[in-house]
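for the writeup, i need someone to sanity check this before i put it in the appendix. the sequnce is what the collaborator sent (i think, or maybe the updated version? ugh). structure was predicted straight from it, no edits. if anything looks off just tell me and ill rerun, i have time this weekend
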Amino acid sequence: MGKDNFYDMITGLPNMSYFLQLAEVGKQTMLKNGELPVLLYFDLKGMKFFNSKYGLKEGDILLNAMAQTLKRFFSEENCGRMGQDHFAVFTKEEGVEDVLNEFFEVFKHANEGRTLPVHVGIYSISFEDVSISTACDRAKIASDKDKSRYSSTFTYYDEQLHNHSNRYSYVLNNFDTAIKEKWIRPYYQPLVRSVNGKVCDEEALARWIDPEEGMIPPNEFIYVLEDARLIHLLDLHILEMVIEDMKLTQKMGLPILPVSINLSKYDFQLCDIVDEINKRVTAAGISPKYITLEVTESVSTFEKDFVREQIEKVHAAGFKIWMDDFGSGYSSLNMLQSFDFDAIKFDMIFLKDFAESKRNHIILKELIQMAMKLDIDTVVEGVETTDQARFLREIGANKMQGYYWGKPNTLENKHLICKTSIGNPTEEFAETEYYDSISKANLLEPDIEADYYIDPEEYFGPHPMGVIEVKDNTLRVLRYNKTYAMFLINAKFINEEDLGTGELLVRRTPEASFMETLERCIKSGKWESLQGTIAENFKSDLFLKYISKNEVTNAVAVEIVIVSITTV
């Protein structure tokens, strides 16, 4: 058998199979000499980018430079190329960190400085005496720990990584069974509409309830399935469970709501995910209006034309598509510029330190205003307090999600909550269009078509703006900005303690001239003006405009803008 069968053609190092043999013998020799063996696994970070930038030939030159540097520190027979940009070394544990730090410094200047960072995983036989092949696998796991770090580093395989590795193996070995036995099921978290305080959507969140391991958190199995390129099977399984749950809910005579399902970016690579979803929903006889798809900005790593084509397919099939975790990465604004999303979900990071810092208030307010101008709905995640909910209502967030409104729940608990009328009521699907139109009203910048003049001495600040609902001569305030809320309180139309509780009942009857103008704008469907209406000690000029009619309740929504306020 020739030498070519034992050595790598590019680097001249022992190939993987020969290295494992050499290392097994070397390990036994070290143990006899009273030395503690360690297995080192080397991974060049960014090799794919290096090859695309400089070419494969230059990439081979870099691999050879890596091999020569390894031989300088560890000798040829102690090193091996494991394939691609991966190398392995067996050596003694004593002084290994000093040797690696020196190696990093020398390799920085190899290949005339055209190099890459190196991540090294260290497996010591002192952790557990295993075969060289297993030691190599474990060292590789350690080298992958800080994948995003773009600098040379080394990491030991330890108890934490061991448990992590065992969970990784458990997930892969039991995934098929978990799907078949339905150990993985959707839990449903409500989304509440800011306008009416009603549950208008739900998000299906994958939960793995294992008969042996108990609850396996999503962060312990989703990344494994992405890494193993099995994630599309999970996402399609969750869709199938959601459809099954919808049918059961309908059979029980309970209302169903649109459900959003999270998709991984890998779904679009592993199958025709939109077609697979469409086939299942169509076969079940479920309207696509009840299924919303959520993707993160990670899809921006694909070609723009491909992403645009997938979004167009989603819309053509009748589904909505939302951008999840908006603001958690670096491509969010560019994604909005390039692609047609129906809604964006603001990451909970925007509500972090809400009570202490006002900077996030300003940023969130301006981003929601921007989304409104782009005709994109908004959902804010992570809502936990009344103050947060009130603020989001004031700045025009369409929907809210978080523990303040409810934690993810099983289907059974969701049905129990619905039957016993615990918590927030459910919005009727037939009312969705009505409330959507109300949610889109811009209460920060009016779009009044008429000409009018505001004396700066009479009024300064954002226009008091809101949306009122008229039904059976009863008025309710469905939306308001902060200045309109203050006006209503000072004019004694509402009580301050009512803010943030949902719909606000107007507790005193406005002037007859206001009610006449209200009727006029409902009939015309246009902006109608009223000058000189008086409430308490305030005289105001305002505009009213018809928005929409609720076909279920016959209520009518009207936008109001106060353009001038003076005291009398």
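The chain has three domains: 3-157, 187-207+229-439, 465-567. The first helix runs from residue 16 to 32.
thx in advance!!
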